Amino acid sequence: MNLVSIISQLTSGMGVSIYIFVVTLLFSLPLGLVIAFARMSKNPLISGISKVYISIMRGTPLMLQLMVVYFGPYYIFGIRVSNGYRLWAAMIGFVINYAAYFAEIYRSGIQSMPVGQYEAAQLLGYSKSQTFFVIILPQVIKRIVPSVANEVITLVKDTSLAFTISVAEMFSTAKALASSQTSMMPFVAAALFYYVFNFIVAAAMDAIEKKLDYYR
């Protein structure tokens, strides 16, 4: 079987991988900002909870987190889940994991801003929310784009971990094909997909970074 034929059979797996990638970004980026605010909160309880959450998400393997999200409802609460929950579990696991990483990126960007900018905004009559969303956030976004780009590129490859809970994404589909055909070609096709996908994502992030590099 040639490479083109194999790629056509991997199409459904490609779609699932792209779907997990898009959903993860759509939800983890805003959730990460919320967690960053909680992390910087002056309330020690809120700040402490967010620190523990970030520590757990960053300190344990994503593969293990996916298994906990999928098997947890049954083993902890005795709730039986259907096969349709596999994809939901994968998306939930990816979102809560990447939100923790994005939270720390946001926090470092926000805390790197000079205090003088907040004081100047206050003198000009800006409220706290106006100061953040109009003055601070646009500059923070510019500063954190390279770090976010690294995480986004990692996410492309991490979508393959969904096979842990038997989600039929790109890697698990390629593995099944390779096993049935006793051939390495499905893995070659999968590698090409991840490389091309990563190349497109990297090019898009590079374009965004150049667009925001207004000092030039």
List keywords for this structure.
9 helices, MetI-like fold, 216 residues
What does this 3D model show about the protein?
The protein is an all-alpha fold and about 220 residues long. It has one domain (about 5-210): MetI-like fold, CATH 1.10.3720.10. It has 9 helices and no strands. The chain is flat and about 70 Å long. It starts with a helix and ends with a helix.
Q: Give the radius of gyration.
A: 21 Å
Main sheet record: none
Q: Globular, elongated, flat, extended or rod-shaped: what is the shape?
A: flat
CATH structural class: Mainly Alpha
The third-level CATH topology is: MetI-like fold
Quick summary of this structure?
This protein is mainly α.
Question: Any chance you could write out the topology, listing elements then pairs?
Answer:
Layout: H1 3-9, H2 11-39, H3 44-59, H4 62-77, H5 85-111, H6 115-123, H7 128-158, H8 170-181, H9 185-212
Helix pairs in contact: 2-3, 2-5, 2-8, 3-5, 4-5, 5-7, 6-7, 7-9, 8-9
